[in-house]
Amino acid sequence: MSTVATGTSQLIRELREQGIDVEDSSRRRWEYSYDASNYRVRPAAVAFPGTVEQVREIVRLCARLGVPATTRGGGTSMAGNAVGSGLVVDLSRRMTRTDEADLGSRTVWADAGVVLGELRSRVEKQSGGSLTFAPDPSSVSRATIGGAIGNDACGNHSVAYGRMTHHLLEVELVTADGAHLRAGRDGIRAVDAGDQVSVARAAELDAALSGLAQQHLALIRTELQRIPRQVSGYHLGELLPENGFDVARVLAGSEGTCAIIVRARVGLVPKPRTTALLCLGYADTVESARDVPSILAAEPAALEGLDLSIVDIMRHRRGATSVDSLPRGSAYLMVEFSADTIEEAATDCTRLLGVLRGAGRVLDHAVVTDPGERAKLWKVREDGAGLSSLRIDGVQTWPGWEDSAVAPERLADYLSELFPLVRKYGYTAFMYGHFGAGCVHMRLDYDLHTERGRRDFADFTREAAALVVAHGGSLSGEHGDGRARSELLEVMYSPEMIALFRTFKRSWDPRGLLNPGIIVDPEPFTVSLALEGAPASGAAAGNSHACIGVGRCRATSGGFMCPSYRATKDEKDSTRGRARVLQELTRAQGSTVNGWSSPEVREALDLCLSCKACSSDCPTGVDIAEAKSELVNEHYRGKLRPFTHYSIGWLPRWLPLVTRTAGLANAVSSNPFVRRLGERLGVSARRRLPAFVSARSRRLRIEEARFSDAADVLVFADSFTRAFRPEVIPAATRVLRDTGETVGCTPDACCGLTWISTGQRDGARRRLRRLVDRFDDGTDRPIVVLEPSCAATIRDEAPKLVGGRAAQRVAARVRSFAAAVDEALTRGWKPSAPSPERVVLQTHCHEHAVFGSDVQRRVLRNWGVSEVAVSSSCCGVAGNFGFEAEHFDVSMKVAEQSIRPALDSAADAPVLTDGFSCAMQVNQIDPLRGSSHLASLMDPARLPGSPRAD
């Protein structure tokens, strides 16, 4: 056994003896072998400290045993600076405390594991919306304070607010030998004056850094801080006398190679009162870049660029309406102005437009003052950048040369040479960036699978490095050097500066144990590439091979993904963590065949709710619900399955029988003995069960609907609606009839959803095939499905499981009820039923995944509902998951993230739950409150004196 391996084993043992959470299971190590870069490095173990003292103990033990340590936050690094072969120290799980903001000094202390977006929300709430935290990288919803400092991140508004450096006032840190220090302007001191070890170390570092700066003033002044985004290397310019010997700022961009930052005091800025957006269309990207100096002279708050490839991928993945507000052009600049009034901001846009027209490069423009339209256009920039990880044809793109920067006035000339270099190697570029700061983000379709492709990647990268340096630029503008660029620093800097970087690093970390191989003594950028030795794409279930680690599934707000992660805050319960486990399994055995037999896979996928949110929210389209269904299906084929697969999974089969004796069934299902027996068999005794409706009541409701034989639109009354809330059937019919349509009913059928979610795909296929045969009637009449999860299943799964043109025809005809109403409102229909003033809305997660969650909000807005309390994630039931005994607690934790706060925020408002699962969760949380389907809420029969049917 090697010395490092022996040291690691002892480290893990001693950490556990100290009560520090550390894991070395294969599954955990698989999850942390990646970040969002091109690299894969398997750690020996992962630690999750909860206090500064635990961090000190970790580094002291690592130093004594010679084990390298890599600090990690959200794991969203695109340069490979969040992976390492020794101990990975994850601060994002437990070191998440934020102090009260000091509104007078406009500052706040926060732990390194605090997510940037969460910090911003807390500050804005505490200050009443007057202050905010400025840095806003695209990963703001999951990147942490520590990670943002490590990379020196910035974001869309860096033109106005600069980099993380410019907001960093003080840091608390732990050195490689365990000293606990506070660094800021004018030097370093021990946090505890009685801690003699830390006092001595602070004095030693203060003297070393002061001497380093004084002895190399000319070198530092001539090679560093030359352009706004010179992030590559160490920021030694912050040690200069004219910069106040700022040791906090010199650590920004140090990528965890000098010390472990555990807390930081950051500055806050006034939140803009209002903003207006000027979107400019150009013939090409170089033309757009030539207008950058003129735009900067107008002092905008943001100046971002993107090319047509980003728009095309956004249109392909999000639909034509997502980009229909853009002006004409093949490249775009987005210029934002902040002001006290919207009129002032709009005037700034108009004034700038007049200047740019004189140059003659702008083809078209749009001045946008509406907040909704402005957000929609920014979404093209933000979402399109993430979606560019996959070309339209499914080929993946990669970082590697995604972060170069030059002076803004040299941007056009740099791009005019960079694009031919891209074409020389046959690459396709997806380009966007912070043009106001001269920073270019670019994803390229490298071939990193083959030796020839990797050689081309290496040659291109070296040529690109020489090119950006020739233009006076930086290898990195905000992502850091990491494994991707550290080797190339010698292209950018003199041997003297490289030596100075080494001296600086060794002042902090003499033995080189903190994030080794980064910046100083770097590993070659062609080593540890994740795709080297990986099987061809397509071998992993659920498209999991497509995960590139951007970590959107770790966001705690915005989108529905990933409800289990939001409940547990554990990487294994994120879409990314699950995908990485499946990728490692594929690497080990060539595919994910027999994957459910792997304990690591079962652990990773156990808490997947099968909500399908990842299939739409993940930029690369990873579908863990599909992966789980496929793996379970394969594992149990021909074998005895768990009881819940037959009870809940086959429920639509049992419902016609059960509802014939509904009274008896309800009595049995509420019997305490039966509930305890069900608990032992896997059905939670704590879950409130729905009451079965009798067959007679169901028949009367269907008769009440008065369906027409010759109809414009067909209603599909699914198994769950018929058995548990048949009153929705006539209500939906009356609403659709109110829109001017004649309404008929589809033949009876089952979409097979519960078979899919329990991994019984052959049974699901048979049911969907029968449904397609019955529904494909030779017409194109819309089919309105009352249960949104069934609508999503037919639309999404029928073409995949059944295949053929008939399945495609039926899928194209399917509408959720909300979508059908939205179409009617768009045509000008005015609902007869009055709208409530307030509504609590829980969109079913499958409806969100397939139809989008904007539909219901748009319906409510156009109907006249003035206030909607939105539950913006899965309710926690998601079909069978919330009914299973082993998952009940997590189901309720998921509810705490979104639906319960929404209910509490509007206690007297009606609750809208088109999904039966969502209705069950509301009933679990508040049995007396209840909830309604949109059809019941809009039912014309609610009007006083209205007949039940017309």
Bin the helical content.
Answer: 40-55%
Radius of gyration, in Å, reads: 29 Å
Could you tell me the mean pLDDT?
Answer: 95
User: Which percent range describes the beta-strand content?
Assistant: 5-15%
Task: Please give the alpha-carbon distance between the first and last residues.
Answer: 83 Å
In short:
By secondary structure, the chain is of the alpha/beta class. Helix content is 43%, strand content 12%.
Name the descriptors.
single chain, alpha/beta
Describe what this molecule looks like in 3D.
The protein has 950 residues and is α/β, with parallel strands linked by helices. It is built from 42 helices and 25 strands. The N and C termini lie far apart (83 Å).
Helix-strand blueprint:
Elements: H1 3-17, E1 22-23, H2 26-31, E2 45-47, H3 52-65, E3 69-72, E4 87-90, E5 107-111, H4 116-126, E6 131-132, H5 145-151, H6 158-161, E7 168-174, E8 180-184, E9 187-190, H7 196-215, H8 217-223, H9 247-251, E10 260-267, E11 269-270, E12 274-282, H10 285-290, H11 292-296, E13 302-307, H12 308-318, E14 331-339, H13 342-359, E15 364-368, H14 371-387, E16 404-405, H15 411-424, E17 429-434, E18 439-444, H16 451-470, H17 482-485, H18 489-492, H19 495-508, H20 563-568, H21 575-589, H22 599-605, H23 613-617, H24 624-636, H25 643-647, H26 651-658, H27 662-669, H28 672-681, H29 695-705, E19 713-716, H30 719-724, H31 728-738, E20 743-745, H32 753-757, H33 761-775, E21 783-785, H34 788-801, H35 804-813, E22 814-816, H36 817-826, E23 838-842, H37 845-851, H38 854-863, E24 867-871, H39 888-897, H40 899-905, E25 911-912, H41 916-925, H42 934-937
Helix pairs in contact: 1-3, 7-19, 12-14, 15-16, 21-22, 29-31, 33-34, 34-35, 34-37, 36-38
